[in-house]
Amino acid sequence: MGTTPAPGAAPTRAEICVVACAEAWRGDGEVLAATAGTVPTLGARLARLTFSPDLLLTDGEALLLATPADPGSIEGWLPYRKHLSLAARGKRHMMMGASQLDRYGNQNISCIGQWARPERQLLGSRGAPSNTVNHPVSYWVPRHSARVFVAHVDVVSGVGHDRAAEAGPAAARFHGLRRVVTDLAVLDFATPDHRMRLASVHPGVTVAQVRERTGFPLEITGEVPLTREPTHAELRLIREVLDPHDTRNREVRT
Asked: Which of 70, 178, 186, 248 is the most exposed place for a label (fewest CB within 10 A)?
């Protein structure tokens, strides 16, 4: 279990990750923030309370939250059919998980090994194909390793930049991969051919460590900056309002 930081203590790695996830929704306007994982959920709620006040958030089921700091404060009803309608019209930005990701952002959450005889069965592709061609998508990887960041995914669940381009306008028109946040770094696709780029490393992490745990060469442009730390106001919100029971430090450990 995580240990609750003392008031005034330096940010933990998990808190750095919460802020890095929050930044994925900066400037999105009035879209539905959907998440998979504790840290991205906290990130979306932090973004709504600070720099992205127009974000729509749900309780994970069907109710829109009026105040992210108080899950019991409800402003509206969002049944599943309307949720899917928002997704199909591009009015959602989801941060999904990934069992495998390649350098172009192709994601696998289906199985490991050959499709006909997999070594391990995973979730299945679920909504990943439609998510990645209908609205913005980011990824959260709580354990950065070469098992996740691979040269070639075993099954394409979420569509990467190369495959979207090959498929043509039907797939590429609304395709947009924003960022990948891990326990070590933030990655994006801000390169001419949309290969994965190391955008920042978290405090205490080196570029060499990220490279060592990535199964393909990462694009690096210039000196890699540090991921920004939470402000005092953001830390207070994370520790006292959004996650007083310290669930974040159970998902990310250093």
From this structure: 70
Distance CA 142, CA 148 (A): 10
- Helix, strand, or coil here: 128? helix
pLDDT given at position 246: 95
Q: What is the pTM of this model?
A: 0.93
Sign of CA dihedral 88, 158, 138, 60: positive
Residue 166: its H or E element: helix 161-167
pLDDT in tens, 56-69: 998 877 889 898 88
121-128 contact pairs (CB < 8 A, 24+)? 125/155, 125/157, 126/157, 127/87, 128/96, 128/157, 128/158
- pLDDT, residue 1, reads 46
The angle formed by the CA atoms of residues 183, 30 and 198, to the nearest 5 degrees, is 25
Report the alpha-carbon distance of residue 35 to residue 43 in Å, rounded.
Answer: 9
CA atoms of 247 and 245, how far apart (whole Å): 6
Q: What is the mean pLDDT of residues 68-91?
A: 83
131 three-state secondary structure: helix
* Amino acid sitting at position 123: L
Q: How many CB atoms lie within 10 A of CB 53?
A: 10
Q: Is the pLDDT of residue 100 over 90?
A: yes
User: Nearest Cα to 105, choosing from 135, 130, 138?
Assistant: 138
Q: Rounded CA gap, 229 and 197, in Å?
A: 20
Report the number of secondary-structure helices (H) and strands (E) in the chain.
9, 12
pLDDT at residue 18 greater than cutoff 90: yes
